[in-house]
Amino acid sequence: MTLNSREDFLTFTGLFLFVMLSITLLVAHWAEVPLTTQVHWSTRDFGIGCIAALGMFLSFSWLSSLRDLAADALGASLAQCRLYDLVLMAILVGIVEEFLFRGLLEQWIARWNPIGAFIITNVIFGLLHAISPLYAIMAAILGGILSLLTWWVGDFNLLRPIVAHAIYDLIGFVLIAEEYRKKQNDAETTDIL
C-alpha cells in the first residue's frame, strides 16, 4: 500500500485504527468482555513488555527476506513519516491490535477453551498479517509470544503485550523507513552518475 502523501497515509491509518478500535469496543461490550479494565499500570509489566519487544526483534531480525517484504509493502508510506508519526502509529497499533486479539478475541474464546483460544487467536493474527506464508507464520509466532505475555507472566495484564507490540512495531517502522530512504538515495545517486 502506497498513499500519495504523508497526510493521506496518516489519515487512512488513523481512520482505519479508529474504526477497528470502535468495533472492538462495541463487540467487547456486547460480549461482556472487559478490555480497558484489563490494562494495569505496573513498572514491572512495562519493563517486561520492553524486554520482550527487544527479544522478539532480535529473534526475528535475521529474517531479512521478511523485512524486505514489509519494506515493499510499507516502505514508501513509512518513509514519508516523521519519527513522532511512527511513534504515535506504533503506540496506536499496539493498543488497537492487542485490544482486539489478546483482549477481545482470546478472552472471549477462552471462556470455552483456553488452549483453543490461544491457537485460534494467533492463527487469525498470523493470517491477517500475511504478506507471504513465512510472514504469516512469523506473525502467528509473535502473536503467541504476546499471548504468553498477557496470560502467563503474572496476573492477566494487556499492558505487557501492548508495550511489546508497540516497541516491536516502532523498531520495524523506523528500520523499514530508513532502508527505503537509503535505497531511494542510492537510486538517485546512480541516476545522476
UniProtKB/TrEMBL annotation:
It holds the Pfam family Rce1-like. Keywords: Hydrolase, Membrane, Protease, Transmembrane, Transmembrane helix. Residues 83-171 form the CAAX prenyl protease 2/Lysostaphin resistance protein A-like domain. The lineage of its organism: Bacteria, Pseudomonadati, Planctomycetota, Planctomycetia, Planctomycetales. It comes from Thalassoglobus polymorphus. One of its GO terms (molecular function) is endopeptidase activity. The keyword Acyltransferase does not apply. The chain crosses the membrane at residues 9-31, 46-63, 83-102, 108-127, 134-152, 158-177. This is CAAX amino terminal protease self-immunity. The keyword ATP-binding does not apply. One of its GO terms (biological process) is CAAX-box protein maturation. It comes from the Bacteria.
